[in-house]
Design goal:
heterodimer; A: alpha/beta; Udp-n-acetylmuramoylalanyl-d-glutamate--2,6- Diaminopimelate Ligase, Chain: A, domain 1; B: Heat Shock Protein 90; 5-stranded antiparallel sheet; binds adenosine-5'-diphosphate; binds magnesium ion
């Protein structure tokens, strides 16, 4: 699923990474707990989270994730946004809830991703 | 630490600084990328560095993070001044945590940090003096070889 498709399905606001909307993602990992993401999300996955702190951007960066969708209308601070921009990491916002966002993505073919050890 | 390193870098981490927690790990990641190391290895080490950094932010006052690159492995030492860990074996287990609700609201503090570090490294040693501080030493191998022990 292309990021631009995700933007339209979830009616996202694009805070960063507008130049990367052609990127394809296949897997999605949804969590508010960054340690869970670090433990289990495979590289290249889309992160869907209710966390809007700078740490969610750092998490995506260290775990080589493709992009971030912040749900439920939460708005990251300037620090988080400028980090995402520096790294050209797509940071998308949606007003949809975690459940609505995930079920929308799933209905459009995105699959869940848990790395098997 | 042992032998001649090809490359060495020291970074500082401040306790309680959630605004900047994660910057040391991402800086180290950028350095390792410049050195041209394999991305899977950089990813593993960066996950360990990030968890170690967040532990300093959550529990300690300050720390230094040293990265040493050798021909066949990368070593990291995170040495903090802080409360220390009284029972290291307890703290190493998944789900064991003394984090507060406020820390969990930041996405950390579920007792997965030290296990994540263990899982992503080939060597790990945790030393701690209660009331003084904690030192984590870990390494990832750049060329396959058996783990010690
Ligand atoms: N640098 C440190 N200084 C003091 N205590 C620590 C440190 N790192 C970890 N701990 C203790 O070990 C526990 C487990 O750590 P960890 O596995 O990272 O999980 P979490 O940080 O989610 O609690 C922490 O809750 C804390 O009590
Ligand atoms: Mg931790």
């Amino acid at each position: 699923m292309q990021l631009r498709h995700i933007v339209s399905v979830l009616t996202c606001e694009i805070l960063s990474g507008a130049e990367r909307l052609g990127l394809e993602v296949e897997h999605c990992f949804a969590a508010d707990l960054m340690s869970d993401v670090l433990a289990s999300a495979p590289h290249g996955a889309l992160l869907v989270t209710g966390l809007a702190s700078p740490q969610m951007v750092h998490t995506a960066e260290v775990a080589d994730l493709a992009a971030i969708v912040v749900v439920a209308g939460k708005r990251p601070g300037d620090e988080a946004i400028s980090f995402a921009r520096q790294r050209k990491l797509p940071l998308l916002l949606t007003g949809l809830s975690m459940f609505e966002a995930c079920s929308g993505l799933s209905a459009h073919g995105l699959r869940g991703a848990v790395r098997k050890e | 630490m042992d032998g001649e390193s090809l490359y060495r870098e020291t970074l500082r981490i401040k306790g309680d600084d959630f605004e900047h927690g994660g910057e040391a790990a991402t800086q180290v990641k950028a350095l390792l990328k410049q050195l041209g190391l394999p991305s899977t290895l950089i990813r593993r080490l960066s996950i360990a560095n990030f968890e170690a950094e967040m532990n300093v932010v959550m529990y300690a006052r300050e720390a230094t993070l040293d990265v040493l690159v050798y021909p066949d492995l990368i070593r990291v030492e995170v040495a903090d001044r802080g409360p220390g860990i009284a029972d290291i074996a307890w703290a190493m287990q998944e789900g064991h945590s003394t984090a507060t609700e406020a820390m969990r609201a930041r996405g950390f503090g579920a007792g997965l940090g030290l296990p994540n570090i263990q899982r992503n490294t080939d060597e790990l040693e945790v030393k701690s003096d209660v009331g003084v501080g904690t030192t984590l030493r870990y390494a990832v191998y750049t060329t396959p070889r058996p783990k010690p022990g």
